[in-house]
Amino acid sequence: MHGEAYHHKAKKSLGQNFLTDQNICRRIVDAIAPGPTDTIIEIGPGQGALTGFIAQAHPARFSVIELDDGLADRLEGAYPDIEVIRADALRFPWESLNAGERCKIVGNLPYNVGSKLIWDIVSRVQTLDRAVFMVQHEVALRLTAEPGCKAYGGLTAWVRNFADTRYLFKVPPTVFRPQPKVDSAVVAFVPRPVGEWPRSPQALDRLIKMLFQKRRKQLSNILKPLWSQEIENWFASQGISPMARPETLSPQQFLELSALI
């Protein structure tokens, strides 16, 4: 499979950069830890760099989501026991997984869609047991950032209301074909209990986008049209100055404030 698929021409439109380093592949698969009772979904398997190692663990159910028909054909031929879903992961109905067993999701995500996919998956898959994704290094830093630092942003505040994140390791451009111009990194996600998820994700989404679209402005200025005594009391109870900027709020504080807006 690896030798035959190596000549597949990467499609820039699909953000394809094929991972070729076997040691890194093993480290990613070790992080997702596939077992014989697991349901595994791999996003964008490409030439099967991770697929082969996952298949060797003989999970109870193994599905891959691949948009490229040529690569999907090769995967079906090389791994007849796995389910190949020919689909765009951005349009995949992630909520459909909630009717099944708990699952683990893994993938080397294209840089151009990685943030959006993670935003959707962590907030829609209630049966998620664990996820491990390789993303652009800059995105990995945002996913694992703490409040108050430059990397902390809307993606951080959203994801951390649904899952805890952990930066695992950095991946250099030299292990891909073709080589990207930037570093990558692998991040692990452990979902929070569904009972702790936001009761109104829509309100949280609105607040995060409202504040981080004007992240250089003070919170009191951004929220001026919505300001109320209740909001003022909340700031006082949290010990936060209304003159602070959005990146000073923790994910939990974003959640609490969204309930007042």
Task: Characterise the protein shown here.
It is built from eleven helices and nine strands. Helix 8 (201-212) packs across helix 11 (251-258). With 261 residues, the protein is of the alpha/beta class. It folds into two domains: 2-196, Rossmann fold, CATH 3.40.50; 201-258, Orthogonal Bundle (Helicase, Ruva Protein, domain 3), CATH 1.10.8.100. Strands 4-3-2-5-6-9-7 form a seven-stranded mixed beta sheet, with helices on both faces. It has a two-stranded antiparallel ribbon with strand order 1-8. Residues 1-6 and 10-15 have low confidence and may be disordered. It is elongated. It starts with a helix and ends with a helix.
What structural class is derived from the secondary structure elements? alpha/beta
The residue ranges in which pLDDT falls below 50 over 5 or more consecutive positions are: 1-6, 10-15
Major sheet size, sense and barrel closure? 7 strands, mixed
Query: What integer value in Å does the Rg equal?
Result: 20 Å
Keywords, separated by commas or semicolons:
261 residues, alpha/beta, Rossmann fold, Helicase, Ruva Protein, domain 3, 2 domains, seven-stranded mixed sheet, two-stranded antiparallel sheet, 11 helices, 34% helix, elongated
Quick recap of the structure?
This protein is an alpha/beta fold and 261 residues long. The protein has two domains: 2-196, Vaccinia Virus protein VP39 (Rossmann fold); 201-258, Orthogonal Bundle (Helicase, Ruva Protein, domain 3).
